[in-house]
Design a protein that fits this description.
It contains twelve helices and twelve strands. It is of the alpha/beta class and 306 residues long. The strands form two sheets. It has an eight-stranded mixed β-sheet with strand order 5-2-1-6-7-8-11-12, with helices on both faces. Strands 4-3-10-9 form a four-stranded mixed β-sheet, covered by helices on one side.
Length: 306
Protein backbone atom coordinates (compact mmCIF):
# COMPACT_ATOMS: atom_id res chain seq x y z
CA UNK A 1 0.00 0.00 0.00
CA UNK A 2 1.26 3.47 -0.90
CA UNK A 3 1.04 6.09 1.85
CA UNK A 4 4.19 8.19 1.59
CA UNK A 5 5.67 9.72 -1.58
CA UNK A 6 9.04 11.25 -2.41
CA UNK A 7 9.74 13.51 -5.37
CA UNK A 8 13.03 14.52 -6.92
CA UNK A 9 12.80 17.64 -9.06
CA UNK A 10 11.25 20.97 -8.04
CA UNK A 11 10.54 22.19 -11.56
CA UNK A 12 7.12 22.58 -13.12
CA UNK A 13 6.02 18.93 -12.92
CA UNK A 14 7.42 18.37 -9.46
CA UNK A 15 5.67 21.42 -8.03
CA UNK A 16 2.45 20.80 -9.93
CA UNK A 17 1.94 17.22 -8.78
CA UNK A 18 3.72 17.82 -5.47
CA UNK A 19 1.18 20.49 -4.57
CA UNK A 20 -1.68 18.12 -5.38
CA UNK A 21 -0.17 15.38 -3.21
CA UNK A 22 0.43 17.93 -0.44
CA UNK A 23 -3.26 18.85 -0.53
CA UNK A 24 -4.42 15.23 -0.67
CA UNK A 25 -2.15 13.39 1.80
CA UNK A 26 -0.57 16.18 3.85
CA UNK A 27 2.84 17.72 4.29
CA UNK A 28 4.22 14.85 6.38
CA UNK A 29 3.51 12.27 3.68
CA UNK A 30 5.11 13.96 0.67
CA UNK A 31 8.65 15.27 0.49
CA UNK A 32 11.19 16.54 -2.00
CA UNK A 33 14.71 15.07 -2.07
CA UNK A 34 17.49 17.48 -3.03
CA UNK A 35 21.27 17.38 -3.08
CA UNK A 36 23.22 18.70 -0.11
CA UNK A 37 24.03 22.00 -1.80
CA UNK A 38 20.41 22.80 -2.61
CA UNK A 39 19.18 21.60 0.77
CA UNK A 40 20.58 24.66 2.55
CA UNK A 41 18.62 27.01 0.29
CA UNK A 42 15.49 24.93 -0.24
CA UNK A 43 14.61 23.54 3.20
CA UNK A 44 12.84 26.70 4.43
CA UNK A 45 11.77 28.18 1.10
CA UNK A 46 8.09 28.84 0.45
CA UNK A 47 6.67 27.90 -2.96
CA UNK A 48 3.50 29.17 -4.59
CA UNK A 49 1.25 27.15 -6.87
CA UNK A 50 -1.69 29.02 -8.40
CA UNK A 51 -1.24 31.60 -5.67
CA UNK A 52 -1.42 29.12 -2.78
CA UNK A 53 1.49 28.96 -0.35
CA UNK A 54 3.28 25.62 0.13
CA UNK A 55 5.93 24.88 2.75
CA UNK A 56 7.01 21.55 1.30
CA UNK A 57 9.02 19.11 3.37
CA UNK A 58 12.52 19.04 1.86
CA UNK A 59 15.18 16.49 2.81
CA UNK A 60 18.80 16.03 1.80
CA UNK A 61 20.27 13.18 -0.18
CA UNK A 62 21.94 11.71 2.92
CA UNK A 63 18.78 10.20 4.47
CA UNK A 64 20.38 10.07 7.90
CA UNK A 65 17.00 9.13 9.44
CA UNK A 66 16.78 6.05 7.20
CA UNK A 67 13.23 6.80 6.11
CA UNK A 68 12.09 5.07 2.92
CA UNK A 69 8.88 6.07 1.20
CA UNK A 70 6.49 3.83 -0.70
CA UNK A 71 6.81 5.68 -4.02
CA UNK A 72 9.42 7.85 -5.70
CA UNK A 73 8.48 10.22 -8.51
CA UNK A 74 11.37 11.34 -10.71
CA UNK A 75 10.45 14.71 -12.20
CA UNK A 76 13.71 16.20 -13.46
CA UNK A 77 14.91 17.03 -16.94
CA UNK A 78 16.56 14.21 -18.85
CA UNK A 79 19.84 16.12 -18.74
CA UNK A 80 19.75 15.81 -14.94
CA UNK A 81 18.61 12.19 -14.67
CA UNK A 82 21.93 10.65 -13.62
CA UNK A 83 22.46 13.34 -11.00
CA UNK A 84 18.93 12.71 -9.70
CA UNK A 85 19.56 8.97 -9.43
CA UNK A 86 22.65 9.73 -7.34
CA UNK A 87 20.63 12.05 -5.10
CA UNK A 88 17.85 9.53 -4.38
CA UNK A 89 19.89 6.33 -4.11
CA UNK A 90 19.94 6.45 -0.30
CA UNK A 91 16.16 6.92 -0.19
CA UNK A 92 15.14 3.87 -2.24
CA UNK A 93 14.41 0.55 -0.55
CA UNK A 94 13.18 -2.72 -2.03
CA UNK A 95 9.64 -1.60 -1.23
CA UNK A 96 9.85 1.68 -3.14
CA UNK A 97 7.90 1.87 -6.41
CA UNK A 98 9.49 4.25 -8.92
CA UNK A 99 7.82 6.22 -11.70
CA UNK A 100 9.55 8.61 -14.07
CA UNK A 101 7.80 11.64 -15.55
CA UNK A 102 10.74 12.45 -17.81
CA UNK A 103 10.29 13.25 -21.46
CA UNK A 104 11.61 10.84 -24.05
CA UNK A 105 11.32 7.08 -24.42
CA UNK A 106 14.23 5.60 -22.49
CA UNK A 107 14.37 7.04 -18.95
CA UNK A 108 12.98 3.81 -17.45
CA UNK A 109 15.71 1.85 -19.20
CA UNK A 110 18.37 4.14 -17.74
CA UNK A 111 16.88 4.00 -14.24
CA UNK A 112 16.80 0.19 -14.38
CA UNK A 113 20.60 0.22 -14.61
CA UNK A 114 20.67 1.47 -11.01
CA UNK A 115 17.56 -0.01 -9.38
CA UNK A 116 15.65 -3.28 -9.71
CA UNK A 117 13.61 -3.06 -12.91
CA UNK A 118 10.66 -4.69 -11.11
CA UNK A 119 10.38 -1.55 -8.97
CA UNK A 120 9.88 0.65 -12.03
CA UNK A 121 6.46 1.32 -13.54
CA UNK A 122 6.06 3.30 -16.74
CA UNK A 123 4.52 6.76 -16.68
CA UNK A 124 4.21 9.93 -18.71
CA UNK A 125 2.55 13.25 -17.90
CA UNK A 126 0.25 14.94 -20.38
CA UNK A 127 -2.10 17.88 -20.83
CA UNK A 128 -0.58 20.39 -18.40
CA UNK A 129 0.24 24.02 -19.20
CA UNK A 130 2.34 25.34 -16.32
CA UNK A 131 4.03 28.72 -16.30
CA UNK A 132 6.89 28.85 -13.79
CA UNK A 133 8.84 31.88 -12.64
CA UNK A 134 11.27 31.49 -9.75
CA UNK A 135 9.29 30.02 -6.82
CA UNK A 136 5.87 30.59 -8.38
CA UNK A 137 3.99 28.14 -10.60
CA UNK A 138 0.67 28.82 -12.29
CA UNK A 139 -1.39 26.54 -14.50
CA UNK A 140 -4.83 26.35 -16.06
CA UNK A 141 -4.78 22.63 -16.91
CA UNK A 142 -3.24 20.21 -14.42
CA UNK A 143 -3.21 17.39 -16.96
CA UNK A 144 -2.85 13.77 -15.89
CA UNK A 145 -0.35 10.93 -15.60
CA UNK A 146 -0.58 7.86 -17.83
CA UNK A 147 0.63 4.74 -16.02
CA UNK A 148 1.25 1.13 -16.95
CA UNK A 149 3.89 -1.55 -17.06
CA UNK A 150 6.10 -3.16 -19.66
CA UNK A 151 5.83 -6.58 -17.99
CA UNK A 152 2.97 -8.25 -16.19
CA UNK A 153 4.92 -10.42 -13.76
CA UNK A 154 3.59 -10.83 -10.21
CA UNK A 155 5.64 -8.06 -8.62
CA UNK A 156 4.89 -5.47 -11.27
CA UNK A 157 1.19 -6.34 -11.26
CA UNK A 158 1.08 -5.88 -7.48
CA UNK A 159 2.90 -2.55 -7.65
CA UNK A 160 0.60 -1.34 -10.43
CA UNK A 161 -2.45 -2.40 -8.44
CA UNK A 162 -1.20 -0.50 -5.38
CA UNK A 163 -0.49 2.61 -7.46
CA UNK A 164 -3.94 2.58 -9.06
CA UNK A 165 -5.55 2.03 -5.65
CA UNK A 166 -3.59 4.99 -4.24
CA UNK A 167 -4.43 7.29 -7.14
CA UNK A 168 -8.11 6.33 -6.93
CA UNK A 169 -8.17 6.95 -3.19
CA UNK A 170 -6.77 10.48 -3.41
CA UNK A 171 -8.47 11.32 -6.73
CA UNK A 172 -5.16 11.87 -8.49
CA UNK A 173 -5.62 12.52 -12.24
CA UNK A 174 -4.35 9.45 -14.10
CA UNK A 175 -5.09 7.08 -16.93
CA UNK A 176 -4.21 3.40 -16.93
CA UNK A 177 -2.61 2.38 -20.21
CA UNK A 178 -2.55 -1.30 -21.09
CA UNK A 179 -0.08 -0.49 -23.88
CA UNK A 180 1.95 2.12 -22.05
CA UNK A 181 4.88 1.90 -24.50
CA UNK A 182 2.56 3.16 -27.23
CA UNK A 183 1.62 6.06 -24.95
CA UNK A 184 5.28 6.92 -24.27
CA UNK A 185 5.96 7.01 -27.99
CA UNK A 186 2.88 9.15 -28.56
CA UNK A 187 4.12 11.68 -26.00
CA UNK A 188 7.58 11.50 -27.60
CA UNK A 189 6.02 12.35 -30.96
CA UNK A 190 4.24 15.30 -29.37
CA UNK A 191 7.40 16.62 -27.71
CA UNK A 192 9.41 16.31 -30.90
CA UNK A 193 6.90 18.56 -32.59
CA UNK A 194 5.69 21.01 -29.95
CA UNK A 195 8.67 21.54 -27.65
CA UNK A 196 11.24 22.02 -30.35
CA UNK A 197 9.18 24.21 -32.66
CA UNK A 198 8.06 26.56 -29.89
CA UNK A 199 11.69 26.89 -28.81
CA UNK A 200 12.85 27.71 -32.34
CA UNK A 201 10.10 30.28 -32.84
CA UNK A 202 10.67 31.72 -29.34
CA UNK A 203 6.92 31.56 -28.74
CA UNK A 204 4.33 29.82 -26.60
CA UNK A 205 1.56 27.31 -27.18
CA UNK A 206 -0.31 29.84 -29.29
CA UNK A 207 2.60 29.69 -31.76
CA UNK A 208 1.64 26.18 -32.82
CA UNK A 209 -2.09 26.40 -32.09
CA UNK A 210 -2.72 28.76 -34.98
CA UNK A 211 -2.33 27.94 -38.67
CA UNK A 212 0.97 28.81 -40.26
CA UNK A 213 4.58 27.78 -40.76
CA UNK A 214 5.20 26.84 -37.12
CA UNK A 215 2.22 24.49 -36.95
CA UNK A 216 3.17 22.93 -40.29
CA UNK A 217 6.71 22.35 -39.05
CA UNK A 218 5.38 20.74 -35.88
CA UNK A 219 3.20 18.34 -37.87
CA UNK A 220 6.02 17.42 -40.25
CA UNK A 221 8.38 16.64 -37.36
CA UNK A 222 5.72 14.47 -35.70
CA UNK A 223 5.06 12.51 -38.88
CA UNK A 224 8.73 11.56 -39.12
CA UNK A 225 8.37 10.00 -35.67
CA UNK A 226 5.36 7.98 -36.88
CA UNK A 227 7.46 6.52 -39.69
CA UNK A 228 10.24 5.51 -37.31
CA UNK A 229 7.80 4.13 -34.73
CA UNK A 230 6.56 1.56 -37.24
CA UNK A 231 10.13 0.33 -37.66
CA UNK A 232 10.32 -0.04 -33.86
CA UNK A 233 7.09 -2.07 -33.87
CA UNK A 234 5.11 0.72 -32.24
CA UNK A 235 1.86 1.40 -34.08
CA UNK A 236 1.65 5.17 -34.10
CA UNK A 237 -0.62 6.71 -36.69
CA UNK A 238 -2.53 9.79 -37.78
CA UNK A 239 -5.18 9.12 -35.14
CA UNK A 240 -2.53 9.51 -32.45
CA UNK A 241 -1.22 12.66 -34.06
CA UNK A 242 -4.70 14.17 -34.31
CA UNK A 243 -5.47 13.29 -30.68
CA UNK A 244 -2.35 15.04 -29.40
CA UNK A 245 -2.72 18.07 -31.64
CA UNK A 246 -6.27 18.44 -30.35
CA UNK A 247 -4.96 18.16 -26.80
CA UNK A 248 -2.36 20.88 -27.37
CA UNK A 249 -5.01 23.10 -28.88
CA UNK A 250 -6.84 23.11 -25.52
CA UNK A 251 -3.85 24.40 -23.52
CA UNK A 252 -3.43 27.93 -22.25
CA UNK A 253 -2.05 29.83 -25.28
CA UNK A 254 0.33 31.73 -23.00
CA UNK A 255 1.77 28.54 -21.54
CA UNK A 256 5.11 27.16 -22.68
CA UNK A 257 6.72 23.73 -23.04
CA UNK A 258 9.87 23.00 -21.07
CA UNK A 259 12.26 23.64 -23.96
CA UNK A 260 10.99 27.19 -24.32
CA UNK A 261 11.84 27.78 -20.68
CA UNK A 262 15.32 26.41 -21.42
CA UNK A 263 15.69 28.93 -24.20
CA UNK A 264 14.52 31.81 -22.03
CA UNK A 265 17.01 30.93 -19.30
CA UNK A 266 19.73 30.04 -21.82
CA UNK A 267 20.36 26.54 -20.52
CA UNK A 268 20.95 23.37 -22.49
CA UNK A 269 17.71 21.77 -23.63
CA UNK A 270 16.54 18.20 -24.09
CA UNK A 271 17.20 18.30 -27.82
CA UNK A 272 19.24 15.08 -27.65
CA UNK A 273 16.24 13.03 -26.47
CA UNK A 274 13.97 14.61 -29.08
CA UNK A 275 15.37 15.28 -32.55
CA UNK A 276 18.69 13.78 -31.41
CA UNK A 277 16.92 10.49 -30.73
CA UNK A 278 15.03 10.78 -34.03
CA UNK A 279 18.35 11.14 -35.85
CA UNK A 280 19.73 8.13 -34.00
CA UNK A 281 16.75 6.02 -35.06
CA UNK A 282 16.94 7.32 -38.63
CA UNK A 283 20.49 5.99 -38.90
CA UNK A 284 19.46 2.68 -37.35
CA UNK A 285 16.70 2.17 -39.91
CA UNK A 286 18.29 4.09 -42.80
CA UNK A 287 15.30 6.41 -43.10
CA UNK A 288 15.88 10.13 -43.84
CA UNK A 289 14.36 12.65 -41.40
CA UNK A 290 15.15 16.02 -42.99
CA UNK A 291 12.73 18.00 -40.83
CA UNK A 292 14.17 16.79 -37.55
CA UNK A 293 17.69 17.12 -38.90
CA UNK A 294 17.01 20.79 -39.65
CA UNK A 295 15.41 21.29 -36.23
CA UNK A 296 18.31 19.61 -34.46
CA UNK A 297 20.91 21.74 -36.25
CA UNK A 298 18.93 24.91 -35.55
CA UNK A 299 18.65 24.20 -31.82
CA UNK A 300 22.32 23.29 -31.55
CA UNK A 301 23.14 26.57 -33.29
CA UNK A 302 20.90 28.50 -30.86
CA UNK A 303 22.48 26.85 -27.84
CA UNK A 304 26.00 27.50 -29.11
CA UNK A 305 25.36 31.20 -28.43
CA UNK A 306 24.66 30.68 -24.70
Amino acid sequence: MIKKVSIVGMGSLGLLFGSLLFDKIGKDNVKFIVDNERFKNYKDKIRYVNGKEYDFKVVSEENTEKEYDDMLIIAVKSTNLLDAIDVVKNHVSDGTTIISLLNGINSEEIISNYFDSNQILYATAEGMDPIKADDKLNYTNMGYVCIGTDKFNKEKKERLHDLIEFFDMIEFPYKYEKNVIHRLWSKFMLNVGVNQVVMIYEGNFETIQKSGDARNLMLAAMREVITLAHKENVGLGEDDLNFYVSLVDTLNPLGMPSMRHDGLYKIKSEVEIFSGKVLELSKKHNIPVPVNEMIYNKIIEIESRY
